[in-house]
Amino acid sequence: MKHAEAISMNVLPWHRSGAGWRLAAVLIAVLVCLPILSLVLIAFQGSAGLWPHMLAHVLPAALKNTIVLLLGVGVLVTLIGTTTAWMVSAYDFPGRRILEWALLLPLAVPTYIIAYAYLDILHPVGAVQGALRDLLGYSSPREFRLPDIRSMWGCILLLGLVLYPYVYLTTRAMFLTQAANLVEVSRTLGTRRGGVFRQVAFPLARPAIAVGVALALMETVNDIGASQFLGVRTLTASVYSTWVNRSDMAGAAQISLAMLVIVVMLILFERHARRNQRYATAAQKPRVMSPIRLSGWRAAGAFGLCFLPVALGFVGPAIYLVREAWKRISFAGISPRIWAEIVNTVTVSVIATFLVLLCGLTLAYAARAWPGRAMALAARASTLGYAVPGTVLAIGLLIPVGLFDRFWAGSVERLTGAAPGLLLLGSGAALVLAYAARFMAISTGGIEAGFSRISPSLDHAARMLGQNSSGVFRNIHLPLSKTAMASAGLLIFVDCMKELPATLLLRPLNFETLATHLYGEAARGTYEEAAIAALLIVLIGILPVALLSRLGRVET
Predict the structure, then answer these.
(1) Is residue 507 one of the residues assigned to a domain?
(2) Is-contact 157 76, C-beta < 8 A?
(3) What is the pLDDT along the chain (556 residues), one digit of tens a residue?
């Protein structure tokens, strides 16, 4: 009995101090950074004469294109995401309920599919430009043609149409949780509705906007398919060409490490935009502002404004994919293997989503409950995996995963005399680890934004009532951050379904997902078959979009 009491006395202070939370946060950050540390080792194996060549001929143009692309996409996603989030939150008009979830639909479509679709849709001899020439009385593309979408402006436009939901999702969640009395007081003081947005709603939503923009820009940095389709040579494209064309993995690793500088700058931008910007709800549940009812031309204008990005970012490409898929089904039906690929895609995406959410909760809570340089550094380090292209990240992960698998196989064989095979690579666990390292930024950033709305007084009150760190987390932070977790979970699940490079490298033998199926068919030029897989990715992605919309909807 005395021994048990001594153990409890020793364990309880350690538990109350949060050492377990802090240790878990540091371990998660170290595991996420392992592929990057591995890349550093690979980079040191490169040729000493590589950097002068890249500095003279590769990096200047690629860096300029990347910066211009980031600036353009950042402005576009901010305008579209913030405007649409405010319109569906502050106003009521016919079709608003549909637009609440329809505005998220572009997230379900890979960027490279959007780019390919519009290259065909807007081709000079395609149906759209042909109809315009007939309408205007021209007979050939030489007489009239639209500006070539294979350009920087085309890449900015298409990426902005696909990535604006990152800003819309986080910003709308913030608008929905803002107390109604803040809006009512500003109206009482004579502020017009537009002034309420500029002077009250927008400043309070800056933390959420910063998180969404940072996520969209990091996704832009990592894009390879759309930029290559559209002829924009970015740093990521330089990584692939250095690796594939020159067979120089060390050089690709060196460029990837240089890309970390840009991502660190994006993270600093997000932190700078949120400095001194904190908004916490009161202990009681806040009332949500009542939307203003619009009618007539104002209602039609609001619906048209919100539907335009949905039409351009989802409806148009979806119609194109349906047409291409119908050609394939009419000719040869649906391949039986597609059903197994659906199961594989959903299974690995769900497992990765739960793992990433759990790790993100640990990091965000440790950073909030024990503020300091160590926990802040752990939270920021966990987002660095979003900086590296999926292919290079997967290659960086191969070294630690391969070492563990060799150690495991050797140990089991010495003990049992039987070769157990590859544990992580053979089971698909390595693929889940790659997804975790890749998308930890979404979980950590989204949950931190949710935690920032929880008043610190609730933490202090729970502590005074005898709750330890785990009790505060379980009884305060989990219930009050459901919307933030659901938002992060949606983004992670959809991104896992769309992730292609890491899946190609780390999947087990004979393991196909919808993304790898799509890639294989597109590489062979059978775009009708690829369209079927793309449509299935969209259909599976629609379900969590609808669920998230129901979770985030507040009845008024």
Answers:
(1) yes
(2) yes
(3) 444 444 433 333 434 456 778 888 888 888 888 887 887 787 777 665 666 766 666 778 888 888 899 999 999 999 999 999 988 888 888 988 889 888 988 877 778 788 878 887 887 777 777 788 878 877 777 777 778 888 899 999 999 999 999 899 888 877 776 655 566 666 665 566 666 676 667 777 777 888 888 888 888 887 777 787 788 888 777 776 776 666 677 777 777 777 777 777 766 766 666 565 555 554 445 556 677 788 889 899 999 999 999 999 999 888 888 888 887 777 777 777 788 888 899 899 999 999 999 998 888 888 887 877 888 888 878 877 776 767 778 778 877 888 888 888 888 777 877 767 777 877 788 899 889 888 888 888 888 877 777 777 777 777 777 777 777 777 777 777 777 788 788 878 888 888 877 887 788 888 888 888 877 776 666 666 777 887 888 777 776 666 666 655 544 4
| Cβ atoms of residues 285 and 82 within 8 Å | no
pTM as predicted: 0.75
Nearest residue to 36 via CA among 387, 424, 320: 387
**Ordered DSSP codes for 322-388:** HHHHHHHHHHH---THHHHHHHHHHHHHHHHHHHHHHHHHHHHHHHHHS-SHHHHHHHHHTTGGGGS
* Domain region containing 382: 36-278+291-552
Q: Measuring CA to CA, how many Å separate 538 from each of 96, 211, 272, 490, 534?
A: 22, 24, 35, 13, 6
Q: How far apart are CA 262 and CA 121, in angstroms?
A: 33
User: Please, are residues 152 and 64 in contact by the beta-carbon 8 Å criterion?
Assistant: no
CA-based torsion, 375, 376, 381, 386: positive or negative: positive
The tokens describing 531, both together, are 């369209």
Asked, for residue 486, whether it belongs to a domain, the answer is yes
CB count, 10 Å around CB of 407?
Answer: 11
Q: Residue 118 and residue 124: Cα distance in Å, rounded?
A: 11
Residues forming a β-bridge with 288: 179
Do residues 255 and 239 touch, judged by C-beta distance below 8 A? yes
Q: Residue 437 maps to which CATH number?
A: 1.10.3720.10
Please tell me the distance from the alpha carbon of residue 376 to that of residue 429, in angstroms, as a whole number.
28
| Dist CA 397 CA 393 (whole Å) | 6
Q: Is residue 10 part of a domain?
A: no
Question: What is the three-class DSSP state of 240?
Answer: helix
Do the domain assignments include residue 109? yes
Q: Where are the alpha helices (DSSP H) in 245-310?
A: 249-273, 296-310
Q: How many CA atoms lie within 13 A of 513 on its CB side?
A: 25
Task: For the chain, count helices (H), then strands (E).
Answer: 28, 2
Residue among 209, 211, 217 nearest 235 (CA): 217
Please name the residue ranges forming H helices in 103-201: 111-121, 127-136, 152-177, 180-188, 193-196
Q: Say how many domains are in the chain.
A: 1
405 HSE (CA, 13 A, CB side): 17
Rounded Cα distance between 496 and 504, Å, is 13
Q: How far is CA 461 from CA 6, 131, 227, 272, 458, in A?
A: 29, 67, 51, 30, 5
Q: Among 99, 75, 72, 552, which Cα is nearest to 315's?
A: 99
